[in-house]
Amino acid sequence: MRTWQEAWAEALYGEGGFYRRAEGPAGHFATATHGPDGELLADALLRLVEKEGLRTVVDVGCGRGELLTALAAVSRHTHPDLDLLGVDVVDRPADLDPRIGWLVAPGGPELPDLGTPTEALVLAHEWLDVVPCGITRADEAGTLRTVHVDEDGAEHLGEPLDEADSGWVGRWWPGPHPPGAVVEIGRARDEAFERLVARTGSGLVVAVDYGHRAGRRPIDGTLMGYRDGSACPPLPDGSCDLTAHVAMDSLRADLVRTQREMLRGLGVDGARPPLDRAHSDPAGYLAALSRASHAAALTGPGPGDFLWAIRRVDRITGSAARSSPRGRIAGPAPRGGSRR
């Protein structure tokens, strides 16, 4: 019998795992990187690139390159020299824009050599939530124990936590933990984020995910499955996506903000255009109304509550600098309204 973390990794990234399937993630759910919402997000990210004076965008866990495709389109005339690089566990899609480079990743927390990009926006959009983490549950005495799982989803309590996991819990998710309480140990996510920072020469490293912070940890856990556009029981058999929210404060980012705050700061506010424009410029009014609708989706309840964890990497030394930066939605169907 395997721990949830081991079974999760095999189910998503093993041979025949969910993320290696031909239809790709977009065959089962949509995120903010897909469709018109992705185009609007790409436009906002391009403003961040401009604001920070960056010249490269790296998208880690990029699916089939949907967000990069949108970035290639919105930057084609204004930033034709912007370098775009996708990282995922599958080979480069044949129909991808030729501007977009590609690296194949091993999966989970492991990363390929990114080439130490400089002046880069290194984006991990809904990547950390699918980096398998330790799932633990408190027994009748309130002692956290590792949860083991069968392929059919049946769970069993195993051994108490080792020293490393106990240390993480003591720092980031301290007790007491009542019997049955679930703690999702984010140590693997922290290490993956640090690995991403270490592979960045300079610029911004940004993790975007549903998450939580100290004082508002979920008592029942957040591990969920998604298949064919709907939430489903989390089964570690490769048939569904498996995701759990991220303890965003344990990433030790320079800045953690909601997506609502970040996008509004980048000009995405969802405000409807003036009604009188419908008479003077009907086509322009309809285009602006559509944009406002998608902006409202990205900044409204659910997606707007995503957290952006931002780490600045020093432009000269390549070390992480402790200064703050300047400064999943429909179809085929969302994962539970977004992907949660």
From TrEMBL:
Gene3D superfamilies: 3.40.50.12710. Keywords: Methyltransferase, Transferase. One of its GO terms (biological process) is methylation. InterPro entries: NDUFAF7 (IPR003788), NDUFAF7_sf (IPR038375), SAM-dependent_MTases_sf (IPR029063). It is an enzyme of class 2 (transferase). The keyword DNA damage does not apply. Residues 319-340 are annotated as: Disordered. This is SAM-dependent methyltransferase.
